[in-house]
Specification:
The structure is a homodimer. Chain A has about 425 residues and is α/β, with parallel strands linked by helices. Chain A is built from eleven helices and 18 strands. At the A-B interface, helix 1, helix 2 and helix 3 of A face helix 1, helix 2 and helix 3 of B.
Amino acid sequence: MTIPVGEPMPIIVQKYGGSSVADAAKISAIARKICDRAETGASLVIVVSAMGDSTDRLIEMARDVSGDRPPEARELDTLLSTGELVTSTLMAMAITAAGHPALSLSGQQAGIRTDTRHGSARIADINADRLKRELDRGRICVVAGFQGLADTEDVTTLGRGGSDTTAVALAVALGAERCEIYTDVDGIYTTDPRLVPSARKLAEIGYEDMLEMASLGAKMNPRSIELAAVYDVPVLVASTFEDVPGTLIHGGPHMMEIRRAVTGIAIDRDVAKITVRAVKDRPGVSSQIFAPLSEAGVSVDVIVQNASQEGLTDVTFTVSKSDFERALDLTRETCSDMARDVVGDSGLAKMSIVGTGMQNGTGYAAAMFGALANAGVNIEMITTSEIRITCVIAASAVTVAANALHRAFELDAVVD
Amino acid sequence: MTIPVGEPMPIIVQKYGGSSVADAAKISAIARKICDRAETGASLVIVVSAMGDSTDRLIEMARDVSGDRPPEARELDTLLSTGELVTSTLMAMAITAAGHPALSLSGQQAGIRTDTRHGSARIADINADRLKRELDRGRICVVAGFQGLADTEDVTTLGRGGSDTTAVALAVALGAERCEIYTDVDGIYTTDPRLVPSARKLAEIGYEDMLEMASLGAKMNPRSIELAAVYDVPVLVASTFEDVPGTLIHGGPHMMEIRRAVTGIAIDRDVAKITVRAVKDRPGVSSQIFAPLSEAGVSVDVIVQNASQEGLTDVTFTVSKSDFERALDLTRETCSDMARDVVGDSGLAKMSIVGTGMQNGTGYAAAMFGALANAGVNIEMITTSEIRITCVIAASAVTVAANALHRAFELDAVVD
């Protein structure tokens, strides 16, 4: 190492997802790469997820012992947190075996304090004293992702994709140079390359565009992107095992997005639609339909209400496929007296064009609708934000639609 | 429940071992029994081990990532502690599902502080405030056994059979009425019933006798018996799933042991013997033989040295079978210049008669040697304590010897 004494080494936070650490051989391979990186003169904090499908197995056991009722959220959190503890200790052993001193830290030991919302806790504060102390001693710290400690001294988990949030939050707390998310994809693409052969990996993307893409199905936790944006921490998304450039998410001034209005096309196939037909159009009717769904924990996404005809209207909304049957039953119960009938369709997808540049231009919606029409794709619902236009279409039309939009917005052309 | 308001309910600590909680169905079955017990008006603290062979699987993974070197003890402790966390959360869910409010507590949350000897930590202190608070709220507390927290804020484990120690220590800290150890045997027997058909389950046994029996192969952690003896906590050993009376380990005045000199016969088949032949009998020779074994972590048990003849003597000692090959190699290396040769035999067993009553009587040794001689069993080594006489014999003679001793000391006769 050629780092002069006295000059602090840059801190890098790396996160490895579940498929990257699925078995001992993969953990050992990553450990060797981590040691090589440490030799370049960086202080490394490694955040790990649970191995492979171990979280699913723990959830299954929890269901087995809980009978008809859902497992207690407090107990489930401690149970699930063990998955990341297993990976963090094995990774610390593997790094030490590969030649660099390392130690594991639980969320609690890493100083991550959260609120008490079990299953979807938010990070309230990070006391990074111990982390800094261990880094100063020349150790690589391996932090169990996805978890923290509430003021009740109970273990909490951060919800889906929580390890991404752990990584970005630690990068913020440590003033890290950047946060690197290693996963089984090698970056952020203009759209899903399995559907669109000409899809192109982005060298960089802005926080806002990434946030929309992440919310719409790209493999990143939106909360971690928000956090990175607020504190302006650059985030690299790259492949764990392939040595190719990834995508840098940042807020720098020389963003490609300035030159290109539409950054990418997000595809979400987890969409089901429920339509309440011929409901009486009177005040409070929406509340009557949606309050029971909210109480049941069903998350409603797009909502569309047609213009009223003769005092009757149709209300359509989307839910995730896993909530579909339950939401349909609930809505039928709610609406038995106030609507003609309730129908559903679970074979849908959301197709979105995303780009910060769109807020300064016009004609993007028209271009999108035109491209879909030319491709023979029927639009079932439309919703928009400042930097996104989303169409709900039949799931069977996704490949045709994605290729049509990718061409229409010239995403396969090389601009750089 | 008929417990009067204001009168504190008795606290009972129960411990369930790994084979008792090996799968979800077993956990649910135990949870129902625990709820029934709670209805009788007891405050319950449940201590659980890791499920079935999960600890072995974690150790295997640790070895896989650690290469040639042993896994770091600190990391291994956190890794292994997850096994008990999994059981404790699942058990808390199962009890709640069975109808009684419950929560899990890690060793740390249960206030168990230890020294920093990773892998074999000793409990230094228990702060039972949270446990008491949760019990007062009417909850059943399920504590992850085998683990604690050191002053370094690192997780420690208590070594082999550590969950027994957790249970007894919590019983002491809470002033519990008694500690109940549930396992896959239904009590303490006069000897191994698989070898001696007339072996009889003891209704009760004193702490000292139990300590000798436990050290000699009975399925209890000797440290937990010591702790129970010091604080005079009665310990019941009973079957998890069979509803039959177990064995009560206690120090009460009306012990059967007063009437019966020999309480039981302990059998330990994990014995190998190493003999250093014709070693020069000069000062320091024992130290030269045993220091390298101690440094290598080999635990030496019985040591016998013959009377010297012409300045030469034979030194024989026993080790566990797992240490045999290593100890033999080491001793051959050490003694290459100072003895004729080193020979070994791994097919041995220790047969002990145990009984507090023996310290007030005479003739027990003679009776033991006579019984073995009549049965045609050759004695290879002898060692004694105040309340125990141990003979090392060939492993192939164990069944014959055990039956002969059981008859000779009238252990199959019913005295009560």
